[in-house]
Amino acid sequence: MRRLPPDYNAAIDGLRAVAVVAIILFHLDARWLPGGLAGVDLFFVISGFVICRSLAAVPCPQLWPWLLDFLRRRLLRLLPLLLVVVVATFAAVSWHLPRGILDGTYENTGIAAMAGASNLVLAWSLASHLTPFADANPFLQTWPLAVQAQFYLLLPLLIFAWLHRRPACWALPVLALASLLLAAWQTQATPASAYYLLPARFWQFAAGVLLYQHLHRRTLPGGRRHQGWAGLALVLAGLAMARPTTLPFPDGVIVVAGAALLLAACTTANGAAPRLVRWLGCAPLRYLGRLAYALYLVHWPVLVLMRGDQPLPLSALPVYVPLVLGLAMLGHHLIEQPLRYGHWPWQRAPWSVFGATLAAVAVSLALIGLLDVG
Predict the structure, then answer these.
(1) What is the DSSP string of 59-113?
(2) What is the pLDDT of residue 96?
(3) I need a surface site. Which of 38, 52, 125, 348 has the fewest CB within 10 A?
(4) What's the rounded Cα separation, in Å, for the pair 356 and 271?
């Protein structure tokens, strides 16, 4: 059994579980949780916090070795399961759905996902969450992963400046403020760009990063523990009330503020953890949170394939839920974890991982080319 890292925080996995369940509930039926798409906003804040913590924990006397090692770890963490899901989705579509069901946008979304660019395809097309065409795109769920990947190209440079106390360390808060102002304007002016592209989403990642920097080498006094309940209330309010047309601004602000308060509460002082933190870290939520990446990847294509052009009936849930959970468990335990934490020599060397990445993408494209999905 893999040993958990010393800084592992079970409550943060619980927050991941809340986010992924909210998204799945929205996709099953938007009436069940109208603001469920704001689970993506919650994911972005968590990601910024956790990745900043991960980067700060690794010695970085020189930028390039440190940067290459970070990219190596991110590729091993995210790409293998993504490639498997994308190729499997193409195969399932070619077998299950009528010929021609994938238009160019949908097909391009799947292919761009392997390069971390599916959000660009969606932002510049009509088949997005903001239109009815989204329900037929089996690769729609890949766009936040693309935004995340693009953020990962910029974040290490900002963290390096912060760790080394360089003047450029002020770039992060300045960029975050500019991103928030852009989101406020762009949500009304060009909503698809605001929703899918990094510039209007950057502030959400930055909120998590700035929170970690603020809490770095600090502890929270017991009198501030109740902020976790305030954070939970804000997150639940956002998940209940947010709408796709008001994300990432203004409704995303509610979720981001709540997420920051919850993450701060999870970073507790020594001693007994607050009740909310213990609840978020309970075994079922903790396990769902560790499955969150796999659950998020598989839940949408399975839903698209099962429901076709009709809403998924309640009678199908006893099949859908175990199927998605089972596929996520297989992906997590057989693909995600072994490749992330394996001990093969090539996994330790950045250039070996980069070469394996190119080879894996090439093989995936070749397999997709053999499938008749047009």
Answers:
(1) --SSHHHHHHHHHHHHHHHHHHHHHHHHHHHHHHHHHHSPTT-S-HHHHHHHHHH
(2) 73
(3) 348
(4) 45
